Amino acid sequence: AQSVSQHNHHVILSEAASLELGCNYSYGGTVNLFWYVQYPGQHLQLLLKYFSGDPLVKGIKGFEAEFIKSKFSFNLRKPSVQWSDTAEYFCAVNSGGYQKVTFGTGTKLQVIP
Amino acid sequence: GAVVSQHPSWVICKSGTSVKIECRSLDFQATTMFWYRQFPKQSLMLMATSNEGSKATYEQGVEKDKFLINHASLTLSTLTVTSAHPEDSSFYICSAADRDGLGEQYFGPGTRLTVT
User: Fold this and answer.
1) Are the CB atoms for A65 and A55 separated by under 8 Å?
2) Alpha carbon of A91 to those of A6, A44, B62: distances in Å?
């Protein structure tokens, strides 16, 4: 069975600080990887996704993530966070060709102005 | 973009009654819809996967007789919580995947259920 670990449960940053949220998964086969964001009071939205190709994926709002197959990781990064990035971030994975997605436990990001 | 709606957005019901939650894909056809439950400060827990025209596949530990799922069309899936109890109070979220089946899911805004 696949599983997803997000090691940072709660991160507090000042505006303009750089962000990196860790995500590791366990599954030996082909995977599709996702980062979703849930802003306060809103529903989950897709930030970015990796299916194949360039392991460095760029998403919306200046976010990017790098797929490192050897480390089973898909960390999310942003060079300079803004107060509006305050949200909960979920990493998710599904095995190629199968739609069921497994979510990590989420990381709550709080950006202080 | 792909939009998924849920109705109602919140509902309060008494113990023993049943509640139906609708999930609709508004601008695309969803061959597969998923139902999640989100507990406070926890991640989404997949309850079941529903494919149009067939029976839902429930995750281990989810009572299929309690959480009835129907996916009657390519744009509508319903979750009925039968004989609700206070411990069923939670945030229920649906998502829909389009025909491509590449794994990206579009999420509804969720339904807050409170059972008194």
Assistant:
1) no
2) 7, 11, 23
CB pair distance less than 8 Å for A45 and B107: yes
The H-assigned helical ranges of B33-110 are none
Task: Print pLDDT tens along chain B (116 aa).
Answer: 688 999 999 999 999 999 999 999 998 888 889 999 988 767 788 999 988 888 899 999 999 999 999 988 889 999 999 999 999 999 999 999 876 656 678 899 999 999 99
Q: Do A102 and B46 touch (CB under 8 A)?
A: yes
φ/ψ of residue B83, rounded to 5: 45, 60
Distance between CA atoms of A79 and A74, rounded to whole angstroms? Answer: 16
Q: Which residue of B has its CA nearest to A97?
A: B102
